[in-house]
Amino acid sequence: MSEKQLTSAQKLRKDKVYYGKELQDNAKRGREIYHKDPVRIAKNITRTKARLDRVGYYPPSRWSEEEESYLVESYKNKTVEYMCGELGRSYSSVTHKVNRLFLTKYNKYE
Is 108 contained in some domain? Predict the structure, then answer.
């Protein structure tokens, strides 16, 4: 089939394949250049560290057995916000742990 006989969908498909390969090649070349430049790598590392310090990111700490037992004992009686303050953890961390432990405030069988 010549170019004139291709339908518009076939032309579009052909262009997508060509430009997709071109983008992959450019990305590959960019990654190779990026990883070989030590100055750029050093700048990226310092920029990342500064951003994490600015946001106040701390690496996640594991839950101790005392914290888990406190959570199990006091979940029915206390609010999540109060337990966050007691444990020194974020709201999302406490709620995630509650869900993982399958804790509920009310048990209809009790």
Answer: no
Domain extent, residue 42, equals 3-55
CA distance 84 to 82: 5
The reply to whether 70 and 51 lie within a common domain is no
Which amino acid appears at position 48 of this protein?
T
* Same structural domain, 83 and 49: no
57 residue type, one letter: Y
Per-residue pLDDT of the chain (110 residues; tens, 9 = 90+): 555 676 666 666 666 666 666 666 666 666 555 556 677 767 777 777 776 666 665 566 889 999 999 999 999 999 999 998 888 888 989 999 999 999 988 876 76
Decide which of 55, 74, 91 is a domain's last residue.
Answer: 55
- Residue where the block lists tokens 């953890």: 89
DSSP result, 88-100: T--HHHHHHHHHH
